[in-house]
Design brief:
Number of strands: 7
Shape: globular
Number of helices: 5
Order of helices and strands: EHHHEEEHEHEE
Strand order of the largest sheet: 1-2-3-4-5-7-6
Number of domains: 1
CATH architecture: 3-Layer(aba) Sandwich
CATH superfamily: Gcn5-related N-acetyltransferase (GNAT)
CATH class: Alpha Beta
CATH topology: Aminopeptidase
Distance between the termini: 18 Å
Amino acid sequence: MVPIRRLDEDDWRLLRDVRLRALLDAPEAFASAHADEAAMTAAQWTARLRGGAWFVAWPEGAAEPCGLVGALPDGREWFAVAMWVAPGRRGSGLAGELIAAVVRGARRAGTSVVALQVNEHNSRARRLYEKLGFRPTGQIETLPREDGYTRERMSLALAHRAD
């Protein structure tokens, strides 16, 4: 199991570095472009941290994190965003651990639902989310990109219990 920790405002450089790695590694997986986020200021990265809960997976002794996920609160819902696992860690269960960190945080915050969007062509991610209890909502969004990027919303209703 890889240690996962929640970032705080002082971690804006870490968030920036991991997020930019993710955008370079898998640009097709995200709605944002590397160039746009590389141009963000320290204040913008700090605001991003303030606006949500951000988690990194960082193996002991490793030079850098190997996973990232954010969660944006919206009323009684947390919306998981920016999910990324480094290529060498894919298939290891780390994505599930990152989502579990979001779910724990959402429960502690008294949230009723965790939602996310999954790329229509990413069947591996869809299977993982379904295994974790997420269900398709039927809401589909096509982003204004040349490749016609389409993603579907999935949600998980939270049963409140002590962790």
